[in-house]
Amino acid sequence: MKLNSDVILKVSALTKSVKTEAKTLDILYPMDLTVVAGDSLAIVGASGSGKSTLLSIIAGLDLPSSGEVFLKNQPLHQLNEEQRSAVRAKHVGFIFQQFLLINSLTALENIMLPAELAGMANPEQLARELLAKVDLTDRAEHFPSQLSGGEQQRVAIARAFISKPDILFADEPTGNLDTKTGSHIADLLFEINKQQGTTLILVTHDPKLAARCQRQVIMESGQLSEANVAPVIAETVVTEAVVTKPVVTKPMATEPATANPVVAESSATKQPLSESL
User: Fold this and answer.
1) Rounded to 10 degrees, what is the CA torsion of 141, 147, 180, 44?
2) What whole-number distance in Å separates Cα of residue 214 and Cα of residue 197?
3) Which structural domain range is residue 173 located in?
4) Is 276 within a domain?
5) Of 191, 217, 209, 172, which is closest to residue 134 (Cα–Cα)?
6) Is 275 inside any structural domain?
């Protein structure tokens, strides 16, 4: 199949299932998806709905059980890992929730690495330009352990864009950050994405982040839909919080006992997509 010139990603009748000793688990049910070059798309839904599994497949990190996935006219569903890796290196960028920086490399070196592996000219100059865009010029020689979470994610964003990918996949890019830092990271992500004209596909639980994308699709129990997005996003935010039993504090000599309800965010973290640069 040859895609229209404006279509960068096309998914047809895609499914994913996993066989266990007892039975076959269906993770993704037959679904279709078409993404036009330059679009931004948010995949939203509850934890365990299949969002990250879908992202892994359309990014060429995993294979579907059946169906077709075309990325830049490349039939990912027919390619082996080495061939898919070559497609990723040429066309794809990644941003992960866990940052996945290389601890032994400085911020500058982490950003330079994809450009060096791709044989691009002047990788250091390109990396320094991106460091300036994410406002980390003075952190160029710092290692990941010397950077805050927000700074590490800014390095990860710069690294993702240095090779000027045709399409960028982001898995919960603000998931490990506080609200203020997450908002700043989102601003940078969309700003650089617009400057480079990159297609953006992201998985998120953040309704504000999802709303900034041109399109939003819902993943529910392994099925994909573009209808009634706003209510599902709102429900996802509510159900992500787990309310525990009240904690009774020991009274002071002159104070009555009080019950303080504790709201704890869900501590379950998704397995990050793994990719060697």
Assistant:
1) 100
2) 13
3) 7-265
4) no
5) 191
6) no
CA distance linking residue 71 with residue 166, whole number of Å: 10
Decide if 112 contacts 127 (C-beta within 8 A).
yes
Looking at this protein, which amino acid is placed at residue 124? E
Return the structure tokens found at 176.
């490990």
pTM over 0.85: no
Which CATH number does the domain housing residue 102 bear? Answer: 3.40.50.300
Instruction: Give the whole-angstrom CA distance, residue 197 versus residue 222.
Output: 30
Distance separating alpha carbons of residues 100 and 7, to the nearest angstrom: 30
Q: Going by DSSP bridges, is the β-strand pair 74-75/7-19 parallel, antiparallel, or unpaired?
A: unpaired
Record the tokens describing residue 45, joined without a space.
Answer: 């839904």
pLDDT per residue as tens digits for the range 27-72: 999 999 999 999 999 999 888 889 989 999 999 999 999 999 999 9
H/E element, 192: helix 179-196
User: Count of domains in the chain?
Assistant: 1
Give a yes or no: residue 40 inside a domain.
Answer: yes
In a domain, 148, yes or no: yes
